[in-house]
Amino acid sequence: MSRYFDRIHNGQPIDDIEIIDFHAHLGPYFNMHIPADSAEDMIRMMDSCGIDRVIVSPTPGIISDIEYGNDIMLASIKKHRGRIYGACMVNGHYPELSVDELNRCFETEADVKIVKLHPILAECKMDDQRMKGIYEFTADRKLFMIVHTWLDSDPYGNVDLFARVAKDYPDINWLMGHSGGPYGTFRAVEIAKELPNVFLDLTMSMCPARQIEFFIEEVGADRIIFGTDNPFIDPRPQIGRLCLADITQEDRIKIMGGNVKRYIDF
Amino acid sequence: MSKLKYFDCNCSIGRLAHPALYDNINVKGLKEEMATAGVEEALVFHNMARDSAPSLGNAKLIEELKDAEELHPAWVVLPHHTGEIPAPAQLLKDMEQAGVKAVRMYPTKDYHSFSLADWCSGELLSALAEARVPLLLDIEIVWWETIQTLLEKYPTLPIIATNVSYRHHRFIYPLFERYPQLHVETSRFFAASAFEDIVNRFGPGPIMFGTHMPFLTGTPAVSMLTYADISREAKEAISGGTLRSLLKEALS
C-alpha cells in the first residue's frame, strides 16, 4: 500500500514533494464548458492537492491566436509570480510570428520556460518546413518543447512523426504530450528507448492501469514528467494516480518535479 | 475522518482483443486494482457479453464472480424477439435468481445491432423501468439525444451513463435539470472542479463513482472525489451511497 494512501483518502495536500505541473493550459475552450478555468481557480485546485508550480499554455493560443494566448500567459505569470510559469505557443502556419513570439516571450520574461506546439489543433504537420525556424530557436537554447501527440489517428502529430522530427533535433528536449494517448503506450516506450532526448508525459484523461509502473520499468523514471492538462482536466486526479502508484518514493520525487528541475531553474 | 466506502459502478472482467497494457482484465486483476485505489465493492460486467455474445458472457460472469462477494454482477441484455434472451418477465426472474440487479445494453449496428426505439426495445425497457433496474449505457455508443428520449419515456428507469467525457457538460446540465434518474459515471469525468460545480447546482445525485478498472487505474477517480470541496454527505452519496440505494430498490 502506498505511503500516501491515507493522505489521498483524507483529501490532504501532498506537502513533502515539490510538485511541478509541466503540462497545463488556462482559460475557456470552444467545445466544452470548464467549470473553473481562471488562474485563480487553477491555483486553488493546486493548493488543495499540493502542486507547487504550473507551466501554462492558455487555450486561446493553442486553438486560435498564439499572440493573444501568449499575452494571457505573460499576464498570468506576472500576477502569480512563483506559482505560474509559461510555455510560449507557436504555430507553423505563422512561422515569422512564431519566431517573433519566441523572442518576445523568452527575452522579456524569465519565467517563460518551455515551448508548446499543438500540431493537430493548428492543422500543421510537425515536419512542415515552416517549422524550421521554431525548431532552430528551441534547439539553440536547448529548451523543452511539449508537443500534443496521439498514436496513429493524428496526421499532424502522431508519435512516429514526432519521433522523426525529434531525431532531427537532438538538442531539443522533447516531451511527448499524452505519450501518444492511452493506446500509445508501447510505441511511446519504443521511441523513448531509441531517442534519449524524448520524455514521456503522464497527462491523460484515460489512465491505463499500471502505466506509470510500465514506463519506469521500460524507460526509467528519469524521463517521465508529471502533468495534468489543468483546467481541461482537474489536476487532482493525477495526484491520486501518482501518489497511489506502486513505485518507489525516489522515482515519485523525480517524476513529480525532480526531473524538470535538472533542466530548468525555478 | 473515516475513509469513504466506495462502490464502483463501472468495472469489467474478460480478456479484451485490444488491451491497454496487461492481461489483467480478470477477477484477480480487478481485485488488485481495487486494493490499490482503496475501492471496496464494484458492479461488474463481462466483456465477452459485449464483445462476443450476452449469452456467453453473462453465464461466464456468474461463474467467475461466485467466490467474490464484493463484486456484483451486471448483465448485458438485448430485446427478446430473436430468442437469444428470454422475454422480459422471465429475464427478470433469471436476474433475481442470479443476483443481478443492473443491466447494460449495447445497441447500434456496430455492437449488438438493435434499436432502443419502442418497436424493438419497448417491452424490455418497460419491464426494466417497472422493476427499477438501473440501465448502464456507454455514451460512446448511445448518444445524449437517445438517452434523453429514454429519460422522458421511462421516468422510473435509472440510467447510468458510462465513459462520460470531461467535455460533456453542455449536454448533461439541461438533462440534470429535468431528469433526476440520470447519473454520470466518473472514470473520465474530470473537467476542473466538475464535482463542485455539479453538486452546487444539482446536488450529488447525478454523479456516480466509477473507474473502468482494471483496464484503467481507479486512483484518479478516487482523488477527484476526496479532494473535491463538497460536503462529506455529498462524497458519501457519490462514492457509493446513491448506487447502493438504486440496487436496493431494483427488483424489490
Walkthrough of the structure:
The complex is a heterodimer of chains A (266) and B (252). By secondary structure, chain A is of the alpha/beta class. Chain A has a single domain, classed as TIM Barrel. Chain A is built from 12 helices and 8 strands. Chain A has an 8-stranded parallel β-sheet with strand order 1-2-3-4-5-6-7-8. In chain A, α8 links the parallel β5 and β6. In chain A, α4 runs parallel beside α5, α5 packs parallel to α7 and α9 packs parallel to α10. The longest helix of chain A is centred in the first third of the chain and has 14 residues. Chain A is globular and about 50 Å long. Chain A starts with a helix and ends in a 5-residue tail after the last helix. The model of chain A has no long low-confidence stretch (mean pLDDT 97). By secondary structure, chain B is an alpha/beta fold. Chain B has a single domain, classed as Metal-dependent hydrolases (TIM Barrel, Alpha-Beta Barrel). Chain B has 10 helices and 9 strands. In chain B, strands 4-5-6-7-8-9 form a 6-stranded parallel β-sheet. In chain B, α5 links the parallel β5 and β6. The longest helix of chain B has 18 residues. Chain B is globular, with a radius of gyration of 17 Å. Chains A and B meet through α1, α2 and α11 of A and α1, α7, α8 and α9 of B.
In short:
Chain A is of the alpha/beta class.
Q: Topology, pairings included?
A:
The complex is a heterodimer of chains A (266) and B (252).
Chain A lengths: L4 H5 L10 E5 L14 H11 L3 E4 L2 H5 L2 H14 L4 E7 L4 H14 L3 E6 L1 H4 L9 H9 L3 E5 L10 H10 L4 E5 L7 H10 L3 E4 L9 H9 L4 E2 L10 H9 L4 H13 L5
Parallel strand pairs in A: 1-2, 2-3, 3-4, 4-5, 5-6, 6-7, 7-8
Chain B lengths: L6 E7 L13 H11 L3 E6 H5 L2 H11 L6 E3 L1 E2 L11 H11 L4 E2 L13 H13 L4 E4 L5 H10 L5 E4 L6 H10 L3 E4 L8 H9 L4 E2 L10 H8 L5 H18 L3
Parallel strand pairs in B: 1-2, 2-3, 4-5, 5-6, 6-7, 7-8, 8-9
